[in-house]
Amino acid sequence: MSPRPGRRSELLELAVLGLLHEAPMHGYELRKRLSGVLGTFHAISYGSLYPCLKDLAARGWVVEDASSHGSRGRIVYKLTAEGKEHFQTLVAEAGPDTWEDERFGVRMAFFGRTEASVRLRILEGRRSRLEERLDALRSSLARTRERLDGYTLELQQHGMESVEREVRWLDELIETERATPSGTTDSGAPTGQPATTTSGAGNYPSAHGE
Amino acid sequence: MSPRPGRRSELLELAVLGLLHEAPMHGYELRKRLSGVLGTFHAISYGSLYPCLKDLAARGWVVEDASSHGSRGRIVYKLTAEGKEHFQTLVAEAGPDTWEDERFGVRMAFFGRTEASVRLRILEGRRSRLEERLDALRSSLARTRERLDGYTLELQQHGMESVEREVRWLDELIETERATPSGTTDSGAPTGQPATTTSGAGNYPSAHGE
DNA sequence: GCCTACATGTAAATAGTTACATGATTGA
DNA sequence: TCAATCATGTAACTATTTACATGTAGGC
Questions:
Q1: Which residues of B touch A157 (CB under 8 A)?
Q2: Is residue B195 part of a domain?
Q3: CB-strand contact A73/D, under 7 Å
Q4: N or C end of chain A: smaller count of CB under 10 Å?
Q5: CB contact, 8 Å: A18 with chain B?
């Protein structure tokens, strides 16, 4: 089980498989959609995407869909049965960073194709990750409050409020999720809103990098 | 002016210079403080930090402060006059990514040592960057709303609300900044809060990566 | 006919982390 | 004395972007 030369970041892999779960697509289109699913306007480069697609194909998780590549030289990829399985494995597996902003965002973006029990686990994991963050933030603020100038204080406060808001948002989602034993969705995406309340406070990969 | 082998990311450089502006410090301590200043709990590794310090020293922006490295083998760095100047250049310079989350956060964290006019420019730059983001988000939502399942919708909505909140927060900060011709702060950190309103909606590098 | 957007790909450069090596100091 | 934490450093590896190279299709 050598580390394979082609192995790319598990996040990109997950995002690509997730998008192809909806519909077959070629690389160029995939890249555009990827920005929406990955953090805020983080556009992935072709230099990452194409090698990743080749790799996924080599492992049998996607195949070139010969029938649909009409006129242009484009290559339409579609998910295989093994690919679907692998996608389920990936969303469900919980490493130490699974609850970080971008990771969480991608997973939630594919909730429509995720089992109810896994969804709940992800929401709860995210929530407790944020609680940890709040604790750290609070104690750091308590320690340094004196020395801080107005701007820094404003910044810290703003950050904390955002996290608090996201926690409240998650609480609502979790509650709705628990109340609805709608269960083991797989292929059929639940078109109804999970939370009927429009309140929706909090924030998601709102702010992120570069 | 060859690209110099030691050149590290301008963001880390800025953060380090900014922290040393407050007080001389050694690498180990610097690393701990860096997490607060860089996005949410993004701890930088020593493998990045120490080479960066060496590089800054080689350029004369920091020096090893021989007098203060008491007992241990630790090396205390302090900012030189040229270092201070370079810091001012860095905070003031506006590249195409200057307004992205992490970049903005670091700059705002050092507002206490930034000229009033530069502060205003940064806040306004950030604000218009967020407006662009909102436009993109809104049109993307308008285009795809039909096809979206409840979860994705909730996620998008949540993200948008967060950005909107940050815009309102910035509006307040900008207004206060304009109202107060307090001006060209340099060394003395303004201990008073810039915005007396506790409202503080919006969010900052709230969510971030890994 | 030509320009723009579509579409795929690769090599080299760049950025950053991990794993390791080393040693000093403090407190139980 | 032993473990934990403090403290610095580097080589190898991983990930990812940039810059380039190449060609197609559709609109003006």
A1: 200
A2: no
A3: yes
A4: N
A5: no
